[in-house]
Amino acid sequence: MKRRRVALRIAATLLIAGLAASELSGPAALAAPAPVTLRAIASPEQPTVGSHIRYELEVLAPPGVEILVAQPSERIGDLDIVDFGSTEPKAAGGGRGDTVSFLRWWTLVAWNTGAHTVASPEISYRLPGGELQAVTPVETTITVASLLEQAKDASDIRDIKPPTAIPIDWRPYYAIAAAVALLVALVLLLRWLAKRRRHIADIAPPRPPHVIALGALDALRARRLVEKGAIKEYYSALTDIVRAYLEGRYRVRAPEMTTEEFLVASSRDGRLGADHRRLLGHFLGESDLVKFARHLPSTDDSERAYVAARRFVEETREKPKENEREAG
User: Fold this and answer.
1) pTM, whole model, 2 decimals?
2) Which residues, including other chains, have CB under 8 Å from residue 191's CB and lie 6 or more apart?
3) 232-252 average pLDDT score
4) What is the DSSP letter of 251?
5) Within 10 Å of residue 145's Cβ, how many Cβ atoms?
6) How many CB atoms are closer than 10 A to CB 308?
7) Across the strands, what pairs with 123?
8) Band of the pLDDT at 34, cuts 50, 70, 90?
9) Burial environment of residue 13 by CB neighbours within 10 A (0 to 12, 13 to 18, 19 or more)
10) C-alpha dihedral over 283, 286, 292, 296, to 10 degrees?
């Protein structure tokens, strides 16, 4: 209905213009009206696919003629309509008023290349007192060019690039790698410190035999075995301390020798003096009686045995001069 009203408004305008012209020129002006003329123009001359094409249709008619222009709904030929409009009627032919013209225009889009033949929309006219008659449409050829033909290398057609992958966030991996590296460094440091401590312990000079023996005698006394009645255990521990001292001090397998074997061996090589051999023989002999003959010494005897063992260690200890002489 809206399009119908547009056509009627244009026709009424043309009719009014015709009547005004008839008053100026008289009855002879309507006696022999000129035919309706159509002019079609398309621009640009060589559009491309998807670009806008302006199609203009100019209608020229004598005054007093009613003109009806049909409005296509979606397409003109095989071109899509994206916009349309019209201009007001005006006098043509040098302004003498013998011809009236108006312009209808459409914005078109072509989606295929090549030549497109566009026929003007249906137009009808009616002379005063006459019947409605159709105007022969005019055809216009619109050649749509390809964008590829305008390219420098039309054969260089590439496929669409695939979607770009989401970049990986490496920061968590960097943090994990740093933590692992720190842990490895810590483990290596702890191993190095432990190895260094072992190395220092290896190169540290061993404690002298008399220091070990005196410490063992102090620990034995702190156990208070005599007060507890463990006489045999007391003498056995006391003997082991003295024999371990002899092994460390004189490099002999004293724990594996009997008392007589050790005393004979020490008297031959002069390791012990006569007094020290007698002291050691008395001490070891009494200890053998307790361990093997079930001899039960008194508390005083146990104390004398302890004093004898300590005296023997202290008197036979390695002197600093001996160390220097052996080193030299």
Assistant:
1) 0.39
2) none
3) 84
4) -
5) 17
6) 19
7) 69, 135
8) very low
9) middle
10) -130
